[in-house]
Design a protein that fits this description.
It comes from Lacibacter sediminis. The protein has 343 residues and is of the alpha+beta class. It has 3 helices and 23 strands. The protein folds into 3 domains: 87 residues, Beta Barrel (conserved putative lor/sdh protein from methanococcus maripaludis s2 fold); 87 residues, Elongation Factor Tu (Ef-tu), domain 3; 99 residues, no CATH class. 24% of the residues lie in helices and 39% in strands.
Amino acid sequence: MALVIAIAAIACSSKASGDKQAKNAAATMTALPVDVKIVAASNIEQSEVVAGSIVANRVVDITGELPKKISIVFFRDGSFVEAGQALYKLQDSDIKARIRQLDAEMNLAIVNEKRLSELLRTESVRREEYDIALARLQSLQAQKELLEVELSKTVIKAPFSGLIGISKVFTGSFVTPGVPLVSLVEQQVMKIQFSVSEKYISVVRPGSKIYFTTELNSQVATAVVVSTDASLDVQSRNIIVQAQFSNAGNKYKPGMSARVSFNTSTKNEKSIMLPTEALILGGDGYSVFVVRNGVAKLTPVVIGNRNESEAVIKSGLQSGDSVMISNTLRAADGAPVSVVSYK
């Protein structure tokens, strides 16, 4: 009888041990193999990239102020002109003729004014006669000054140095005041215009630097912010910004597209960088799986800037946390995991 009891006890013990090993094996087999990254805060430089356009620092449509015919076109289309350089000459023969006529009348008026002035000293004429002669002389002088101003307007000059466009008029064309004759664009200095979200107003301010490239030039160039619009767009909540740069070599032209980037981080700012494959998008934002004691724990995080490969974690993680960066779609909160490698 004792022998039978002993055999039964040994059999039960063997079965219990086998069940425990089976459970352990099953647990080991169901643990999800994952790669993890041990995160740490470090100094980073965050930047934002937006689209922009190159615009002229100054551009003007050259117009005339007198209704006259063009007698000379001084420039070649598409050439560089200096400030004050003559661009067009309008016919001025009628104005010069009127000036010569006034000169003759003025000579006679000067003689008459001097004669009456001498007679006035001897009281040979009345004061009224002299005053009429003096007023006549002053009126002729004023008329001549007006004609000289009008004559100066027959030469149309460049208000600043820059690249002249294609002339819309030619020698013999009749032009009227206010009608554009040609455009002039300042080339030495240009601007980049772009818009940014309201959250970057304190970052992109006058004096700060931005960086840009174009389709034709992949070399990174620098510009300095010189102005921002007075108000934000009520629809997009964006504000227009203009940055100025030197256009040495005339490599850039107005209308070119530009890829603009600017720094959004503060000096010595520390943040955690995490591969984007670790992020899980949910209804309340982003989360990650943090591995603790062999278990995946779903942890909400707040992200800042991100690109295709990395994201800045603003809150939710601490230095030293082990974050899953693989098999995140197969994991569940509280599920057992087996760490395969550390990145």
